[in-house]
Design brief:
1 helix; 7-stranded antiparallel beta sheet; disordered N terminus; OB fold (Dihydrolipoamide Acetyltransferase, E2P); about 120 residues; mainly beta
Length: about 120
């Protein structure tokens, strides 16, 4: 069963295992402001899309595109992520399309999911 946010390209559960540095910049055409960090996830379950065991997502802050995580991500956080492709990369929406996975009501609606691809 798919969750109500079926416009996302990928839906997965993952734990933040690291941050990598990346150039901080703003892409006005996409409406995305990059913080200068890449979030590295260890993916444990997948409900939509082809997602490997690790996934890198640029950490972006809210702009006109309303994408991003916000500035409070920490290593070890277990998150449920709904993300869409913008250009070559995936982004989550600042409007609640990512949340702590523990106790997330969406998990019941999503069902068992599948393992990430190798």
């Amino acid at each position: 069963m798919q969750a109500k946010r079926d416009s996302s390209d990928i839906v997965f559960r993952g734990t933040i295992i690291a941050f990598r540095e990346s150039p901080a910049r703003t892409d006005k055409a996409l409406g995305v402001r990059y913080t200068g960090r890449i979030v590295v996830f260890h993916v444990t379950r997948v409900w939509k899309g082809e997602v490997g065991q690790t996934l890198d997502m640029p950490e972006a802050l809210e702009t006109t595109a309303r994408t991003g995580f916000g500035p409070s991500l920490k290593t070890g956080e277990d998150l449920l992520i709904y993300a869409s492709r913008i250009g070559p990369e995936y982004y989550t929406s600042i409007c609640g399309f990512h949340k702590g996975a523990k106790g997330a009501k969406d998990l019941k609606k999503l069902g068992p999911g599948k393992d990430p691809t190798l």
